[in-house]
Amino acid sequence: GRIVGIEQSPDMLDKARERVVQLGWDGIALQCCPAERARIPLQADAALFHFTHDVLRRPDAVANVMRHLKPGARVVASGLKWSDVWAGPVNLFVWFAAQYSTTTLQGLDAPWRALESHVQSLDVEEMWGGGVYLAIGKAIGRSVQGGPGEPG
């Protein structure tokens, strides 16, 4: 198989490259760019949005990744989310963690919302007292040729 990793932070991408070399992994292409401009050279079987709150807030970024998925491809997203109002300590944890991993607190009530129009049967599970979520579904499959990062 092949893996396409997209990261816009050069420092984080360097860490990913080090890990790929250290573990001797093959078939991995890493790109340093925003997800909306990523060149994804394949129709993928799956997509993982792991603690990518800011990416999920950008419709063009989500659309670029989703258009490169095969119909029925597995889509998984995980990250921080606000818990119930009564869960003050959990929300304090989310607030502190978000200061280091997001540029905005907007959308933390349902961070997976941008995926809903691209994914069927999105199942969302809350963990860590409601401060972390795992959303799983299958791509609807509106593959579009000639999108961002792909020749027409």
Spell out the key features of this protein.
152 residues, alpha/beta, four-stranded mixed sheet, two-stranded parallel ribbon, 4 helices, 6 strands, disordered C terminus
> What is the β-strand count?
6
**Structural class of the helix and strand makeup?**
alpha/beta
Span of the ends, CA to CA: 25 Å
Strand order of the largest sheet: 3-4-6-5
What's the helix-strand series? Answer: EHEEHHEHEE
What's the overall average pLDDT, rounded? 89
Q: Helicity, in percent?
A: 25-40%
Q: Quick one: overall form?
A: globular
Q: Hey, roughly how much beta strand do the residues contain?
A: 25-35%
Q: Main sheet, how many strands, which sense, barrel?
A: 4 strands, mixed
Kindly provide the radius of gyration, computed on alpha-carbon positions and rounded to a whole number of angstroms. 16 Å
Unreliable stretches (pLDDT < 50, length at least 5) are 143-152
- The number of helical segments is 4
Can you put this structure into words, describing what you see?
The protein has helices at residues 10-23, 53-56, 59-66, 88-101; strands spanning 3-7, 28-32, 44-50, 69-80, 119-127, 132-139. With 152 residues, the protein is an alpha/beta fold. Helix 1 (10-23) links the parallel strand 1 and strand 2. Helices cover 26% and strands 30% of the residues. The protein is globular. A four-stranded mixed beta sheet has the order 3-4-6-5.
What's this entry about, in short?
With 152 residues, the protein is of the alpha/beta class. The protein has helices at residues 10-23, 53-56, 59-66, 88-101, and strands at 3-7, 28-32, 44-50, 69-80, 119-127, 132-139.
